[in-house]
Structures are given as structure tokens and as C-alpha cells.
Amino acid sequence: MSDHEYTPTSKAGKWFNDRLPLLTLANHLTDYPTPKNLNYWWTFGGILTFCLITQIVTGLTLAMHYIAHADMAFESVEHIMRDVNYGWLIRYIHANGASMFFLAVYIHIFRSLFYGSYKSPREIIWIIGIIIYLLMMAAAFMGYVLPWGQMSFWGATVITNLFSAIPLVGEGIVTWLWGGYSVDNPTLTRFFTLHYLIPFLILGLVVLHIWALHVPGNNNPVGIDIKKPSKDTVPFHPYIVIKDGFALLMFMIVFAFFVFYTPNILGHADNYIEANPMVTPAHIVPEWYLLPFYAILRSVPDKLLGVVAMLSAILILAVLPWLDTSKIRSAVFRPLYKQFYWILVADVLILGYMGAMPAEGLYLLIARVATAYYFLHFLVVLPVLGFKEKTLPIPLSITESVLGGSANLATAKHKESFDK
Amino acid sequence: MKNLIKLLSILAFVSIASTHSHSAETAKLLKTDWSFKGLFGKFDRGSLQRGYQVYTEVCAACHSMKYLSYRNLGEKGGPEFSEAEVKAIAASFEVTDGPNADGEMFTRPAKLSDKFVMPYENVKAAQAANGGAYPPDMSVLVKARGGGVDYIYSLLQGYEDAPSGMILDEGVHYNKYMYGNKIRMSAPLSDDIVEYGDGTKATVEQMSKDVTTFLMWAAEPHLESRHQMGFKAIIYLIILTILVYFSMKKIWSRVESEV
To answer: Which domain holds residue A251?
Structure first.
């Protein structure tokens, strides 16, 4: 992994490292050359690692007190909130932590979209990231079912029922998922098991995600390839460590505000009503981070096609490196793409809002237009832009752009033709 | 810093969108000054004690509170009745215990560790006694309703004569804050339905405020320590952030770049 040989100074260290090169790995991680122009949007990788670990630690603690049984789950959550020492704190961190995790992952994904981080040679990092994102959605959905409130129960019913749209085998699959003929105790216990398993799968994929990152190294706001190590890079420690730490602390202040002062604002009131299969809530809505996809699902009149559209909306991201035909990574040098990027951001926010509204009238119409535009962006705009767009000259090196000197046009042009 | 502002505006959008998602109120909710809101929000001890009185003398006839124990009434951050008072409160209820050595069930006065005694044996019994409607358990009621405390506070004062043209079934009442305006519960409060020991005048408005405060505590018994800890945690984080910021500036001054 490392570009340079590393030898521990102590004899014992050398003895150990020859047998298991952990010290070489540690050295690689601290010395890892990082572009020095990374902005704060790049700190969300570290923040996400913090989120994952927070969820695992609080989740393990909750699992010690939670009872995965249809008759006792709701009560055991109240037991945690009332009688377990600091149980309220652990549960509120875990519940709001899911939202903070998604907030961070959306920023992380949209950073990648802006700076073209998914492009060659970083496609594998990106695809692993999409798998992590899918697993996060599965974990969050199943976690929301565990308190066994009304929204848990009916959310689980609606989402698992989507599988019934599959022709021929759909109904059978739903019965198999439920472990019976309705969402009930067997569904709850298997969701709990999977909710416990998935974070560790994510953890493993995060290791691969970082490993794949350390092969080409970080992309950067200028989006050009850089020599590593060079005057364009700084060692990961202490430069990036302290910067990530600073950003993480800012993030934690926002996080703490939610946990301590508005711990229930991101949840739905109905989930404090114990699950009742005989009473359907007026509106069944998923958590905010799934709303854009929920809007896409509902904007297609046909059930099967709706499910297909929803899944495609996520899976289309996996082929993004090949849909985007532009060789220039960073939107900084792509004036047209930059505008389409912000339209996409607005489109996704609009979809999210429509997902929370009832699917009728004007709301439904707007959701349909936004859904169509979402696919248009990836399937038409991105492939065409790569050929049509007049990009700005890119600087030769990070140092040039960092120091604010105007990009040397002649040399930049020369470099471009040289690259070809 | 510009990035931070962007981030915060996205965050603001998300929280606004999510609050919007659960509002389906019919009339604009009444507001009052809740002592437990805000960074240092604490419960009004007197209001909690009066609220318990309203609950136990009025609501408890139909509404259970199955996740609370009598000991909670004496705990810090709650109504903070004295131990003797809580023991007396508990002892005024009869609970079924057993089986004893002879295999018989028996009744005894409730102890601190017992859960609040329920008005009905089970949901079916509650429905049978209330014309088919189940009076919801009140342990987490304020968290289980969009609008929270304001909603409960308003609902208790929202009984009016039905507008002309609206036909109400037998046993259904008009309430301008209820979803659909129809409610099974008849107006539970009327002036002086309870007699407060501390001399506070028991108006419907006052009782609504007191009992809602009590319900808020019942749903969030650790609210006070949450607020206290939150303030300390955030101050700590802010100081640490400032220190780390200057360390970062110092470290990055070695390279020609900005942070």
C-alpha cells in the first residue's frame, strides 16, 4: 500500500512488523499524502466514520435493554427512556444519530457529485459507497421498526408490501419476508437480527472504501491529478486529522442540539403510539431521509413500475461514472454542469418535500415533474454535457490554484493537449 | 465559514420540512408560556403537583398511565412530592398481588415500586365502558400527538357547541382542535371540578395548563437533567472547538494553504 519502505526503529517493533505489518499500516495512515487544498466538504468522510461508530456503540448498549418481541418492544423502549441510567440519552443519540448519519452522507455524496470524485480512477470507491448507502437505508428502515410504534408497524407493512409488486412470486416473497401472513412478531425478531448485522457489514465495506481511496488518493476541489507526495500534498497527520477534528466538533454541536433540545422533532408523533394492526394512521410517512425516494415511488401510477423507478433512482448512481462523459472532474471548471448540479440539488429537495405531502393534486404533479427531471439529469444531461460543454482551463497544479495566481492559460492548454 | 452557513441552511430546511410533515390541525392551537421550554427549561413544581391532582381526580377515571410508577412522583425533576406523601398516595390504591403460599391471589395497598393502577382491566373493558372508544394511555400522550403540549392544552379548552348543520352521533362531542372535530370524550374539565390545596383558582385554563405540564413530565421524566446536561455539553463542545480551531491555524501555518 505504501509508496515508501518503512522500518520500525525499535528491535521489537521490527520483529513484530516483519510478522504482521501493522506498524507499516499505521505509518501509511499517518503519512498518507493528502491534497492540501481539500475544503470542508471533504471532512464528511471522517464525520461519517464517527457517525457509524456512535451508532454501533449506542446500538450495542440499547440492545442490552431492548426486548425484540411484539408484546414487549414498545414497553422496553419506555423502560430504556425511564429506568435505565442515561437510557434516554443513549436512545436519543441513536435515534438522532441516524438522521445525522444521513445528513452527513448526503453532503458526502453531493460533494462527490460536485467535484467529480466518482470519475476514473475512483469508480470502485464510488460503487462501494453506493452499496454502503443502500445498506444504511436498510438498517435505518429496520431500526425504525424496532420501537414497534404505529409508524414502525405501518411503515414496515408498506415497504415490505412493495415486494408484492414482483410478478408471480411477489406475494410469496412478502410472506417469506414477514415470516407469516402479516407483519408480526417473526418480522420484528428478524428485523432486529438484521438491524444488528448490517452495521458490521457497513463497517467492513468502509474499510474497503478507504482502502480503495488510498490507492489513487483523494480527489481535490481542483479535480486534477497530483503527484504524491509533493508540494501539493500534506501528510494526513497532523494536518488532516486536526482539520477533520475541527469539522467534527462543529458537527457534534449541531448533533448535541438535536439530542438535548429537540430530540423528537425528526421523528413522527405516531411512533409514540403502540403498534395497532387494527388502526391505520392518517398519513404513513417514512423518515425524512427516505422521502425523495418515497416521492418517486408514489409519482408512478403503476405499483410495479413505481418500485422499479424508486430502485432505479438509487441504482442509477452506481453507473454514474459511465453516464458522465466529461473528462473534467471538478464543477469549478464546468460552468454548465455547475448550474445543472444546483438544479439537481433543488430537484432532490423538492422531491423530499413532496414525499412528506399527501400524493394528490398539485403535490403529485410537482412530484412527477421532479421525478422525470431526476432521471433526465442522469440519462440525458450528463452524457450530452460531456460532449457539448466548453470547460474552463484547468490549472497545472494545486499550488498554482491555491496561491490564487491566475491559471497560466498557455501552459494549461499545453498540459491539456499533452494529456490527450 | 461560508460552507458552514450553507450547511446550516440545509439543516434548517430539513427541520422545517419535517415539522411541516406532521401538522394536520384544524384550528390554530392556543399558546401559553411553558416553563419547561428553552435552554434552561424546568418544570414548575407547583404546576406538576396540581397537574397530578387533576390527573388522578379527573383523567384517571378512564385514562391509564401504565409506564409510570408511584416512586416516580417523588423523584428529582418530577412533582417531587415528599416520600411520606408518595407513600400515602400509593397506599390509597389497591393492587392485586400473588399468588401467596396458598396459591391465592390477594389485594394489598400499592407500594412505591408499583405501576400506576389502571382504571380498566384491559382494552376491551375500557372500550365497553366508553361506548367503543378506547381512552388512550397517557404515559407518552404529549409525544404521540402532533402539536404536543399545545395540542393537549388546546383540546382541553376546545369544546364548543357544534356549528349548525353538523350532525353529531350519540356520545360524540364537538371540539375545534380535534382531528375531524369529533371526539368521544365529553368535556372533562369545568371550573372548580377540583379544589387545589395551594389556593390556586381551578379555572379550566389553569387546570388544562397544570395537567398538560404533568403529562409532559410523564412523557419526558428526565427533561430537566437533559436540558442541564445539554447546556454543559454544548458549552464544552464550543470551548473545545475554539481551542482546536487555533491549534489547526497554528499547524496549518507551516504550509502555504488556507484552512
So the answer is: 21-284
Tally helices (H) and strands (E) across chain A: 18, 2
CB-based contacts of A377: which residues, under 8 Å, 6+ apart?
Answer: A340, A343, A344, A347
Q: Are residues A276 and A294 in the same domain?
A: no
Nearest CA in chain A to B11: A103
Q: Which residues of A touch B257 (CB under 8 A)?
A: 36-37, 234, 402
- Asked, for residue A42, whether it belongs to a domain, the answer is yes
At residue A414, the pLDDT reads 46
Indicate yes or no: CB of B140 within 8 angstroms of CB of A242. no
Residue with cell 385514562: B63
Q: What is the mean pLDDT of residues B104-132?
A: 94
pTM as predicted: 0.92
Q: What is the pLDDT of residue A420?
A: 40
Cell of A103: 445528513
Probe site for chain A from B5, B16, B257, B258 (most A CB atoms < 10 A): B257
Residue A354's CATH number? 1.10.287.980
A74 → chain B, closest CA residue:
B67
CA A46/CA A39 separation, integer angstroms: 13
Whether residue A202 lies inside any domain: the answer is yes
* Nearest residue in B to A355, CA atom: B21
> In this structure, are A157 and A142 located in the same domain?
yes
Q: Is the domain of A268 the same as that of A220?
A: yes
Question: Which chain B residues are within 8 Å of A261, Cβ to Cβ?
Answer: 39, 227, 230
Which of B8, B22, B220 lies nearest to residue A268, judging by beta carbons?
B22
Contacts of B252 in chain A (CB under 8 A): 239, 242-243
Provide the grid cell at A104: 452527513
pLDDT digits (tens, 9 = 90+) for A192-212: 999 999 999 999 999 999 999
* Cβ–Cβ < 8 Å for A329, A223: yes
Query: CATH code at A100?
Result: 1.20.810.10
Q: Is the ipTM of this complex over 0.85?
A: yes
Shared domain check, A291 and A276: no
Report if residue A414 sits inside a domain: no
Question: Are the beta carbons of B90 and B112 closer than 8 angstroms?
Answer: yes
Query: Structural domain tally of chain A?
Result: 2
Residues in chain A predicted with pLDDT less than 50, given as ranges, are 1-3, 405-420
pLDDT of residue A314: 96
Q: Are residues A338 and A202 in the same domain?
A: no
Residue A41 lies in a domain: yes
Please judge whether B3 and A40 are an interchain contact, meaning their C-beta atoms are less than 8 angstroms apart.
Answer: yes
DSSP A218: -
The answer to whether residue B254 scores a pLDDT higher than 50 is yes
- Residue A226: list chain B partners with CB under 8 A: none
